[in-house]
Structure formats: C-alpha cells, structure tokens
Specification:
Elements (H helix, E strand, L loop, with lengths): L25 H31 L3 E5 L3 E6 L5 H16 L9 E6 L5
Parallel strand pairs: 2-3
Antiparallel strand pairs: 1-2
Helix pairs in contact: 1-2
C-alpha cells in the first residue's frame, strides 16, 4: 500500500491551501518572560537569605529556667552577617513567643554562657 503512494505531492496546484499555519510565538514569549522573572526573584531571595544560612549554622546554647527558654547564638565575625543576626534576634524576641510549656522564648547573641 505504501509503495503505491507517490514520493512527493505537488501542492502548488491546490487553491487556497492552508494546512501549514504560521507559528504564534506569543505563548513562548510569555513563558520566557515569566521564567526569567521567577529566576531573577529566586536569585534575589537567595541573596537576601544568605546571611540567615550562616546564622542557622552557627553554634548555640539553650538555657531554661522557670519563666524563660533562652537560646544564645555565638556572634558571627562578618559585620554584615552579625548585623543580620542581631536583627533576627530582635525580631524573634520581640514577637513575645511562648513555647507549649508556657515559658517565654528569648534569643540572645553572645559567648558561651557561664
């Protein structure tokens, strides 16, 4: 059956032949713009959160008493990261969070407790 078909078909004699359609690139262009925006937002977010990675990976100590749970983080050496650490400490302590046992949570930055 396939052997009986012609090797090529001449469509030049067909009138108003529209089986070929021009490709619309608007969808692809929109996808490319959204992809670039997401990629740029991801890079910016990573740049903003980079100091936090150092904070969360530093040494720390926990001390409890009847009223408080105190988490003390070792101070970071780089000034920008230290500033971010202090800002995070102020923000978290300022929330006035209580743990399920009813004790208040306080974050500190400093050397090992005595």
């Amino acid at each position: 059956m396939k052997a009986q078909l012609p090797e090529r078909v001449d469509v030049s004699t067909l009138s108003d032949y529209r089986s070929f359609k021009a490709i619309d690139n608007e969808g692809k262009n929109l996808f490319d713009v959204v992809t670039a925006a997401v990629w740029n937002a991801r890079r910016q977010l990573i740049a903003w959160l980079e100091p936090l990675y150092a904070i969360f990976n530093c040494q720390g100590w926990i001390r409890c008493n009847g009223q408080w749970v105190v988490v003390r983080l070792e101070p970071l050496q780089q000034p920008a990261r230290r500033a971010a650490q202090e800002q995070l400490r102020r923000k978290l302590t300022g929330l006035g969070a209580k743990i399920p046992g009813g004790k208040w949570l306080r974050i500190e930055v400093g050397v090992a407790p005595v």
